[in-house]
Amino acid sequence: MKVLVVGNGGREHALAWKLLQSAQIEQVVCVPGNGGTATLERCQNLPLAVDDFEGMSRYALENGISLVVVGPEVPLAMGITDYLQSQGLMVFGPVKAGAQIEASKAWAKALMQEAGIPTAKAAVFTEATAAKSYVKSQGIPIVIKADGLAAGKGVIVATTQEQAETAIEAIFAGQFGSAGNFVVVEECLIGEEVSVLALTDGLTIRPLLPAQDHKRIGDGDTGENTGGMGAYAPAPIATPQLMARIQTEVLERAIAGLKSRGIDYRGVLYAGLMIAPDGEFKVLEFNCRFGDPETQVILPLLETPLEELILACVQQRLGEMPPIAWKPGAAATVVAASGGYPGKYDTGKVITGIKEAEAPGVTVFHAGTKLNQQQEIVTDGGRVLNVTGIGENFQQAIAQAYTGIKSIQFQGVYYRQDIGHRVLN
């Protein structure tokens, strides 16, 4: 079968790479793809925008595409699934109504409260004065969130009143685009974050391995929030006992809540959770798609063919599938970023050392890269590469990733030196 993967990041490279490991997959087409997917065997890039639904539909119908897998949240929130399904195509990814679970933090918070899902206390505001007054009444630290899609950067943990007020003003001033129509002010939870990505056909929901992302730009989890600077899986903080509770108290309640709103949700439901020191947990947010960079550590450990799971979700027969099979061991990924990210950065810098990095046990997933006219791989984004190591244990997987990333060179390359510090300690 032929599959079209929508997106151009490390997540999409990982999806294409995993799908192509199956004998059932003849070809993967990535829209628009990146430098990694351009050089992947049996994979080609199609230079269309991720919101060119009509162009994708026409290509898919003319070229015998059997399945469309949507990577990023933006086209999902815009209704790509609804459009492509109306053209007779099979799509993995929720419809626009379901994608609200990520596209609006206020909508998601209301769903969680209605469904009885444990979550942080919060209030939603449409103007700055009321939001600032609420912050004063609640005290510091407190979390300020832009309501809509902000590429993983619309969350500010304020440790002073001034910081909170500045964040509120920045959101309402449009720093995060249309995500600034509402502000969500939320209690600050203490503990360790864990990402639980689950596959669902709208009736059954099955979690993948839990992962832990590293959101901050700096070592020791300092500095600004980013889209994610590295990750590892399976995250040991999410014990089997905890995962059993997350299944019943979060995942199943979320699907029931979506169904009660008349939403047939098929795709990935990703719960970002905070695990408190006493082992209790609350949901920080839901996402409507595969996580990035979590996908780059989960898929290398997946034994069950990915397309079998995706098709079972799309065809609403996930409940008939055997348990998801996993390879033993651990995976860790380190993000090589452009200097200046998550602020301003330059692009077009020539990258060397990728082949040298890909020793046995190391895979380099491209994120912000492209192939230039000279057939060189150059930087084309803030997060440039994900160097993923696989090992029998975390020490080995993390060491593999860092050995690999040391071979990577481009002007201004930056990466955290402490990915996996919690699990190593």
From TrEMBL:
GO biological process terms held by the UniProt record: 'de novo' IMP biosynthetic process; purine nucleobase biosynthetic process
Q: What class of enzyme is it?
A: ligase
**Which Enzyme Commission numbers does its entry carry?**
6.3.4.13
| Gene3D superfamilies on file | 3.40.50.20, ATP-grasp fold, A domain, ATP-grasp fold, B domain, Phosphoribosylglycinamide synthetase, C-terminal domain
An MF annotation (GO) of this entry:
ATP binding
Cofactor names: Mn(2+); Mg(2+)
User: What's the short name of a Pfam family annotated to this entry?
Assistant: GARS_A
Q: Which reaction does it catalyse?
A: 5-phospho-beta-D-ribosylamine + glycine + ATP = N(1)-(5-phospho-beta-D-ribosyl)glycinamide + ADP + phosphate + H(+)
UniProt cross-references to InterPro entries, sorted A to Z:
ATP-grasp (IPR011761), ATP_grasp_subdomain_1 (IPR013815), PreATP-grasp_dom_sf (IPR016185), PRibGlycinamid_synth_ATP-grasp (IPR020561), PRibGlycinamide_synth (IPR000115), PRibGlycinamide_synth_C-dom (IPR020560), PRibGlycinamide_synth_C_sf (IPR037123), PRibGlycinamide_synth_CS (IPR020559)
Q: Which UniProt keywords apply?
A: ATP-binding, Ligase, Manganese, Metal-binding, Nucleotide-binding, Purine biosynthesis
Q: Where are the transmembrane segments?
A: none
Pathway the protein contributes to? Purine metabolism; IMP biosynthesis via de novo pathway; N(1)-(5-phospho-D-ribosyl)glycinamide from 5-phospho-alpha-D-ribose 1-diphosphate: step 2/2
Q: List the protein's name.
A: Phosphoribosylamine--glycine ligase
Organism this protein belongs to: Anabaenopsis elenkinii CCIBt3563
Gene responsible for this protein:
purD
